[in-house]
Protein backbone atom coordinates (compact mmCIF):
# COMPACT_ATOMS: atom_id res chain seq x y z
CA UNK A 1 0.00 0.00 0.00
CA UNK A 2 2.87 2.36 0.71
CA UNK A 3 4.10 1.92 -2.85
CA UNK A 4 0.65 2.78 -4.23
CA UNK A 5 0.45 5.87 -2.02
CA UNK A 6 3.90 6.99 -3.14
CA UNK A 7 2.89 6.50 -6.78
CA UNK A 8 -0.23 8.62 -6.25
CA UNK A 9 1.90 11.36 -4.72
CA UNK A 10 4.36 11.39 -7.60
CA UNK A 11 1.52 11.42 -10.14
CA UNK A 12 0.13 14.49 -8.37
CA UNK A 13 3.52 16.20 -8.48
CA UNK A 14 4.06 15.79 -4.75
CA UNK A 15 6.88 14.43 -2.61
CA UNK A 16 5.79 11.04 -1.16
CA UNK A 17 7.56 12.01 2.07
CA UNK A 18 4.78 14.54 2.69
CA UNK A 19 2.28 11.71 3.22
CA UNK A 20 1.81 9.65 6.37
CA UNK A 21 0.05 6.33 5.89
CA UNK A 22 -2.24 5.59 8.83
CA UNK A 23 -3.17 1.89 8.84
CA UNK A 24 -6.70 1.69 10.21
CA UNK A 25 -6.63 -1.42 12.36
CA UNK A 26 -10.12 -1.20 13.88
CA UNK A 27 -11.81 -4.61 14.29
CA UNK A 28 -8.56 -6.42 13.48
CA UNK A 29 -6.63 -8.27 16.21
CA UNK A 30 -3.32 -7.29 17.68
CA UNK A 31 -1.59 -9.94 15.59
CA UNK A 32 -2.60 -8.06 12.41
CA UNK A 33 -1.02 -4.91 13.80
CA UNK A 34 2.13 -6.82 14.70
CA UNK A 35 2.38 -8.13 11.14
CA UNK A 36 2.00 -4.64 9.68
CA UNK A 37 4.55 -3.29 12.14
CA UNK A 38 7.01 -6.02 11.17
CA UNK A 39 6.56 -4.94 7.54
CA UNK A 40 7.57 -1.39 8.44
CA UNK A 41 4.24 0.30 9.24
CA UNK A 42 4.35 2.64 12.24
CA UNK A 43 1.13 4.70 12.27
CA UNK A 44 -2.12 2.94 13.26
CA UNK A 45 -5.68 4.26 13.49
CA UNK A 46 -8.47 3.10 15.77
CA UNK A 47 -12.17 4.12 15.77
CA UNK A 48 -13.41 2.62 19.04
CA UNK A 49 -12.05 3.70 22.40
CA UNK A 50 -12.21 0.45 24.35
CA UNK A 51 -10.97 -1.71 21.49
CA UNK A 52 -8.18 0.72 20.64
CA UNK A 53 -7.00 1.18 24.22
CA UNK A 54 -6.98 -2.56 24.88
CA UNK A 55 -4.92 -3.10 21.74
CA UNK A 56 -2.46 -0.35 22.64
CA UNK A 57 -2.00 -1.72 26.15
CA UNK A 58 -1.48 -5.23 24.85
CA UNK A 59 1.00 -4.27 22.16
CA UNK A 60 3.02 -1.86 24.25
CA UNK A 61 3.57 -4.46 26.94
CA UNK A 62 4.41 -7.33 24.58
CA UNK A 63 8.00 -8.45 23.99
CA UNK A 64 9.78 -6.50 21.27
CA UNK A 65 9.53 -7.73 17.69
CA UNK A 66 13.14 -6.87 17.01
CA UNK A 67 16.36 -7.71 18.77
CA UNK A 68 17.08 -4.84 21.16
CA UNK A 69 20.30 -2.93 20.70
CA UNK A 70 22.68 -2.34 23.58
CA UNK A 71 21.08 -0.06 26.13
CA UNK A 72 17.68 -0.18 24.43
CA UNK A 73 15.03 -0.91 27.04
CA UNK A 74 12.00 -0.48 24.80
CA UNK A 75 9.31 -3.12 24.88
CA UNK A 76 6.69 -4.12 22.36
CA UNK A 77 5.66 -1.68 19.66
CA UNK A 78 7.08 1.25 21.58
CA UNK A 79 7.59 3.47 18.54
CA UNK A 80 4.16 2.83 17.02
CA UNK A 81 2.10 6.02 16.68
CA UNK A 82 -1.58 5.71 17.56
CA UNK A 83 -4.29 7.83 15.96
CA UNK A 84 -7.84 7.96 17.30
CA UNK A 85 -10.06 8.68 14.29
CA UNK A 86 -13.62 7.93 15.45
CA UNK A 87 -16.33 9.90 17.25
CA UNK A 88 -15.38 10.50 20.87
CA UNK A 89 -17.77 10.57 23.82
CA UNK A 90 -16.90 12.71 26.80
CA UNK A 91 -17.01 9.79 29.25
CA UNK A 92 -14.23 8.05 27.33
CA UNK A 93 -11.97 11.03 26.66
CA UNK A 94 -9.54 10.27 29.50
CA UNK A 95 -8.73 6.83 28.05
CA UNK A 96 -7.83 8.48 24.74
CA UNK A 97 -5.89 11.34 26.34
CA UNK A 98 -3.73 8.88 28.27
CA UNK A 99 -2.86 6.53 25.41
CA UNK A 100 -3.14 8.01 21.93
CA UNK A 101 -0.69 10.27 20.12
CA UNK A 102 -3.25 11.85 17.75
CA UNK A 103 -6.97 12.57 17.73
CA UNK A 104 -8.44 13.38 14.30
CA UNK A 105 -12.06 13.84 15.34
CA UNK A 106 -12.33 17.00 17.47
CA UNK A 107 -15.78 18.40 16.68
CA UNK A 108 -16.71 20.45 19.75
CA UNK A 109 -15.07 22.60 22.37
CA UNK A 110 -16.09 20.44 25.32
CA UNK A 111 -14.20 17.41 24.00
CA UNK A 112 -11.11 19.49 23.25
CA UNK A 113 -11.13 20.92 26.78
CA UNK A 114 -11.50 17.47 28.35
CA UNK A 115 -8.60 16.09 26.33
CA UNK A 116 -6.49 19.11 27.29
CA UNK A 117 -7.24 18.69 30.99
CA UNK A 118 -6.76 14.91 30.94
CA UNK A 119 -3.51 14.73 28.95
CA UNK A 120 -0.86 13.50 31.44
CA UNK A 121 1.76 16.14 32.23
CA UNK A 122 4.66 13.86 31.36
CA UNK A 123 3.45 13.11 27.83
CA UNK A 124 4.03 15.21 24.69
CA UNK A 125 1.09 17.37 23.60
CA UNK A 126 -1.72 15.40 22.02
CA UNK A 127 -1.77 16.21 18.30
CA UNK A 128 -5.28 16.95 17.14
CA UNK A 129 -7.27 17.67 14.00
CA UNK A 130 -10.69 19.28 13.81
CA UNK A 131 -13.23 17.14 11.98
CA UNK A 132 -15.24 19.14 9.45
CA UNK A 133 -18.60 17.99 8.10
CA UNK A 134 -17.53 19.07 4.65
CA UNK A 135 -20.42 17.31 2.86
CA UNK A 136 -22.99 18.79 5.29
CA UNK A 137 -24.47 15.36 6.04
CA UNK A 138 -26.76 15.11 9.05
CA UNK A 139 -25.56 11.55 9.72
CA UNK A 140 -21.89 12.53 9.89
CA UNK A 141 -19.86 13.87 12.77
CA UNK A 142 -17.93 17.09 12.36
CA UNK A 143 -18.24 20.80 12.84
CA UNK A 144 -19.97 22.87 10.11
CA UNK A 145 -17.60 24.75 7.85
CA UNK A 146 -18.73 28.14 9.17
CA UNK A 147 -17.87 27.16 12.75
CA UNK A 148 -14.35 25.88 12.16
CA UNK A 149 -12.56 29.19 12.76
CA UNK A 150 -14.04 29.69 16.22
CA UNK A 151 -13.26 26.13 17.30
CA UNK A 152 -9.75 26.29 15.84
CA UNK A 153 -8.95 29.44 17.81
CA UNK A 154 -10.10 27.75 21.02
CA UNK A 155 -8.26 24.50 20.43
CA UNK A 156 -5.05 26.27 19.43
CA UNK A 157 -4.95 27.93 22.86
CA UNK A 158 -5.46 24.82 24.99
CA UNK A 159 -2.50 23.39 26.93
CA UNK A 160 -1.68 19.78 26.36
CA UNK A 161 -2.92 19.90 22.77
CA UNK A 162 -1.19 20.73 19.51
CA UNK A 163 -3.60 21.71 16.75
CA UNK A 164 -2.26 20.17 13.55
CA UNK A 165 -4.98 20.36 10.93
CA UNK A 166 -8.39 19.37 9.65
CA UNK A 167 -10.06 16.03 8.95
CA UNK A 168 -13.05 15.04 6.82
CA UNK A 169 -14.98 11.92 5.81
CA UNK A 170 -16.94 12.98 2.69
CA UNK A 171 -19.93 11.19 1.26
CA UNK A 172 -18.71 8.19 -0.77
CA UNK A 173 -18.59 8.42 -4.56
CA UNK A 174 -17.07 6.38 -7.35
CA UNK A 175 -16.66 9.43 -9.59
CA UNK A 176 -13.11 10.86 -9.33
CA UNK A 177 -14.28 14.45 -9.81
CA UNK A 178 -16.95 14.04 -7.13
CA UNK A 179 -14.34 12.55 -4.81
CA UNK A 180 -12.01 15.50 -5.26
CA UNK A 181 -14.60 18.23 -4.66
CA UNK A 182 -15.02 17.84 -0.86
CA UNK A 183 -11.29 17.36 -0.39
CA UNK A 184 -10.69 20.58 -2.30
CA UNK A 185 -13.27 22.28 -0.09
CA UNK A 186 -11.45 21.12 3.05
CA UNK A 187 -8.16 22.39 1.66
CA UNK A 188 -9.71 25.80 0.98
CA UNK A 189 -11.06 25.96 4.54
CA UNK A 190 -7.57 25.16 5.82
CA UNK A 191 -6.03 27.82 3.59
CA UNK A 192 -8.53 30.42 4.82
CA UNK A 193 -7.73 29.57 8.44
CA UNK A 194 -4.01 29.80 7.83
CA UNK A 195 -4.56 33.25 6.35
CA UNK A 196 -5.81 34.31 9.80
CA UNK A 197 -2.57 33.14 11.40
CA UNK A 198 -3.56 29.63 12.52
CA UNK A 199 -0.96 27.09 11.42
CA UNK A 200 -2.56 23.89 10.09
CA UNK A 201 0.07 21.79 8.33
CA UNK A 202 -2.00 18.60 8.12
CA UNK A 203 -5.04 17.44 6.19
CA UNK A 204 -6.40 14.06 7.32
CA UNK A 205 -8.39 12.83 4.34
CA UNK A 206 -8.64 9.87 2.02
CA UNK A 207 -9.39 6.19 2.59
CA UNK A 208 -9.02 2.99 0.61
CA UNK A 209 -11.58 3.95 -2.05
CA UNK A 210 -10.65 7.62 -2.55
CA UNK A 211 -7.05 8.13 -1.43
CA UNK A 212 -5.88 9.11 -4.92
CA UNK A 213 -8.32 12.04 -5.00
CA UNK A 214 -7.28 13.03 -1.49
CA UNK A 215 -3.61 13.01 -2.40
CA UNK A 216 -4.35 15.17 -5.43
CA UNK A 217 -5.96 17.74 -3.15
CA UNK A 218 -3.19 17.88 -0.56
CA UNK A 219 -3.77 15.13 2.01
CA UNK A 220 -0.91 14.58 4.45
CA UNK A 221 -2.52 11.89 6.65
CA UNK A 222 -4.19 9.13 4.64
CA UNK A 223 -6.31 6.61 6.56
CA UNK A 224 -6.22 3.19 4.89
CA UNK A 225 -7.86 0.09 6.35
CA UNK A 226 -9.31 -2.53 4.01
CA UNK A 227 -6.57 -2.08 1.39
CA UNK A 228 -4.08 -3.14 4.06
CA UNK A 229 -5.93 -5.54 6.37
CA UNK A 230 -8.70 -6.81 4.08
CA UNK A 231 -12.49 -6.56 4.14
CA UNK A 232 -14.33 -5.92 7.40
CA UNK A 233 -17.68 -7.38 8.48
CA UNK A 234 -20.74 -5.36 7.45
CA UNK A 235 -21.40 -4.53 11.08
CA UNK A 236 -18.65 -3.95 13.59
CA UNK A 237 -18.14 -5.72 16.94
CA UNK A 238 -20.04 -3.24 19.09
CA UNK A 239 -23.09 -3.63 16.88
CA UNK A 240 -22.93 -0.14 15.41
CA UNK A 241 -22.38 0.34 11.68
CA UNK A 242 -19.15 2.19 10.82
CA UNK A 243 -19.42 5.89 9.93
CA UNK A 244 -17.42 5.17 6.81
CA UNK A 245 -15.18 2.43 5.54
CA UNK A 246 -11.46 3.09 5.66
Q: How would you portray this structure in words?
A:
The chain has 246 residues and is α/β, with parallel strands linked by helices. It has one domain: TIM Barrel, CATH 3.20.20.10. The protein has helices spanning 2-11, 30-38, 49-61, 93-99, 109-118, 148-156, 176-195, 211-216, 226-229; strands spanning 20-24, 43-46, 81-84, 102-106, 126-131, 161-167, 202-204, 221-224. The protein has an eight-stranded parallel beta sheet. The radius of gyration is 17 Å and the shape is globular. The model is unreliable at 66-75 and 239-244 (pLDDT under 50).
What proportion of the residues is helical, as a percent range?
A: 25-40%
Q: What value does the average pLDDT take?
A: 89
Structural class: alpha/beta
The CATH homologous superfamily corresponds to Alanine racemase
CATH top level is: Alpha Beta
Biggest sheet: strands, sense, closure? 8 strands, parallel
The coarse overall form would be globular
Secondary structure tally: strands: 8
Query: Roughly how many Å is the radius of gyration?
Result: 17 Å
Query: Which percent range describes the beta-strand content?
Result: 15-25%
Write the H/E string, N to C: HEHEHEHEHEHEHEHEH
List low-confidence stretches. 66-75, 239-244
What would CATH call the architecture? Alpha-Beta Barrel
Taking strands numbered 1, 2, ... along the chain, how are they ordered across the largest sheet?
A: 7-6-5-4-3-2-1-8
- Overall domain count: 1
Number of helices: 9
CATH fold annotation: TIM Barrel
Query: How far apart are the termini?
Result: 13 Å
